[in-house]
Amino acid sequence: MLLVCDDEGLLGKELLAIDGCKMSSNAAKEWSGTFQEFSEKHQKIKRQIKHHLREHQREDQATEDRDARQQRAEQAIETLNKAADKIEQFLKEAEPRKGQGKRKSEVKSNITDNESGKMTTSKGTIQGFNGVATVDKKHQIVVDAQAFGEGQEHHTLEPVLESIKDRFNRLEISADIYKTGMIVTVDTGFANESNMKYLHENSSNGYIPDNQFRSRDPKFTDQKTKYGKRKQHLRKTKLAELILASEFNFDPVNQICVCPAGNQISHRDEREDGNGNTKVYFEGRLSQCKNCDIKHQCMKNPESANHRKGSGRQVSFILENKRAPNYTDWMKHRVDSAKGKQIYSHRMSVVEPVFGNIGTNKGLNRFSLRGKEKVTGQWQLFCLVHNIEKLCNYGQLAA
Predict the structure, then answer these.
(1) Where do Polar residues bias regions lie (predicted)?
(2) Torsions phi, psi for 183 (to 5 deg)
């Protein structure tokens, strides 16, 4: 299909836009959790089964409505047994699922479809896949489509770019499409130090802004004042009214931090973040934050300080003397330049209409299959239909 589109003159090969579209899949969000959470749920179900068995034995001695009650109890016990067996079998056969970040910590598995992931979207938390599409600017042809079962997009950029390179080379469209000056614009969700390093080392003409690039642009200075924040009416505490970390008294020499209430809060960690910055982390003790008079101005969720599994106010500071220039700084200069702003302004108008066409006009609002391979096939099929429509409308094939 890509070769046909190129023959028809639909590929500009000047600018590619990459973004992801998160959609629910054929998997139950309720069956997500870590192995520890599954074990606790399994024990809870076992306790419920014992309770129903005791009730069943007690009702055997009663005469009034005995048959109806026994039937309900037997049905409840059967349902709970099936759920317990399902969890037990999963814990025996599967392995804990690891995240794709620097620290390979455990992420939530899913019993229904363990290749899907729990993702946060603008419409809430879903259990699904992230359909990543790469779109050529000239006629919005999808040149690559893949589905990933993780909410984080950072690790997906390199395999997507390598797939595009191999496909263009295999079809003899270009031996190395990135060496021809092809511009690649990527959404902020893909921004991290390793991706910036990958683009730099491969001499790719890519643009990935960090999530603060708007705040550095003078044109967006009063955007929040003029238009407000998204879903502001749903916020428990307006972030603009919270006491900022700059109000805390931080001593970088002695690694001490004193909160605005005058309490010295606990030093938790010192580590390098995804952008290569050395950060030091502090957290208020529960005994301090629980009884603090200004906790409603200091904490986004003040109620978290009221129970022992919660947490106090957390702040972090960059240790400037340990910070060295990194690849994120290199990308910031590219994106913040006049040329970079002009180039990146095309990204949304290239890729977002494709998602709108597939979701609204073609009716794909959720994946109906399970497993990464099948979901990727479904995502590619809808992208193929989108490309065929472009061929019908704009193709110039000679008779």
Answers:
(1) 108-124
(2) -90, 135
Average confidence (pLDDT) over 328-335: 88
CA 138 to chain CA centroid, nearest Å:
29
Q: What angle do CA 321, 284, 255 make, to 5 degrees?
A: 25
Tell me how far apart the alpha carbons of residues 242 and 216 are, in angstroms, rounded to a whole number.
21
Q: How many residues does the chain have?
A: 399
**What are 72-85's pLDDT values in tens digits?**
778 888 888 898 99
Task: Give CA 252 to chain center in angstroms.
Answer: 33
DSSP 115: T
- Per DSSP bridges, beta strands 249-251 and 205-207 are unpaired
Decide: 191 and 152 in contact? Cβ < 8 Å: no
Residue 241 tokens read as 């009214």
Q: Nearest-CA neighbor of 55 among 71, 43, 39, 32?
A: 71
Task: Classify residue 83 as exposed, middle or buried by CB count within 10 Å of its CB (0-12, 13-18, 19+).
Answer: middle
C-alpha radius of gyration, the chain, whole number: 27
Q: Which two tokens stand for residue 77?
A: 């016990």
Amino acid at 387: N
Express each pLDDT in 257-266 by its tens digit: 999 988 999 9
Q: Are 199 and 206 in contact (CB under 8 A)?
A: yes
